[in-house]
Design a protein that fits this description.
Length: 210
């Protein structure tokens, strides 16, 4: 025979405890005392101290516990006689009204569940709008930065082109000046040669005349 698990042993213990009404009542009394002690020490919070979400969760747990209690009570009472369609409709309406009664305000003019839902939706929409505005601002800022970077880049390229053009112009002028200087020297050299030749010719011609 296989050994029982801790969960199985716990279930058997709870079944034996709940089978005895006195033990069951003693257990519930101890739990209530422990709950009050935890609330006084701050370990447990009352429903008024919880947030809206915590209150909804706590009330949901209460409704589920109440439903389980009703099911246990019905099983303890045994099978119920069949219910007619009219009676079943009235029961469903009463159950629905009782289940939803916690969601209405004291004066019955507004549904707190709907109000909380609407407030939650408003908060979500506000957060979404804020996030969208932040994204738009970042995109706008990024666009402005990119535009400024492009303008700086274009300006830098224009400056570099201007410097390059100026250097090329200086180089061309220098080359033209050197060519002009070489040409002038050639012309002077040719002129000197021509004058020398003419001088020699005049000298020879003078000697011949003598």
């Amino acid at each position: 025979m296989m050994a029982k698990t801790a969960a199985e042993r716990q279930r058997e213990y709870r079944a034996r405890r709940d089978a005895d009404p006195e033990k069951r009542e003693s257990y519930l009394r101890r739990e209530r005392q422990r709950w009050r002690r935890d609330v006084e020490e701050g370990k447990k919070k009352g429903i008024k101290e919880l947030s809206e979400r915590g209150q909804r969760t706590r009330r949901k747990m209460w409704r589920q516990a109440k439903r389980r209690q009703k099911n246990r009570d019905q099983l303890a009472l045994g099978p119920t006689p069949p219910v007619s369609e009219t009676e079943s409709h009235v029961l469903v309406s009463d159950q629905t009204t009782n289940a939803d009664s916690d969601n209405w305000s004291e004066d019955g003019t507004s549904c707190t569940k709907c109000t909380c839902w609407n407030q939650h939706q408003d908060k979500l929409h506000a957060a979404k709008r804020k996030r969208q505005e932040k994204e738009d601002d970042e995109k706008k800022k990024m666009t402005t930065e990119v535009k400024e970077e492009q303008e700086v880049k274009i300006k830098k390229e224009e400056e570099e082109d201007g410097v390059k053009k100026e250097v090329e112009e200086k180089s061309i002028k220098k080359e033209e000046g050197e060519e002009h200087e070489v040409k002038r020297e050639d012309e002077e050299e040719q002129k000197m040669k021509k004058e020398k030749i003419e001088g020699e010719e005049d000298k020879v011609k003078g000697e011949e005349e003598e």
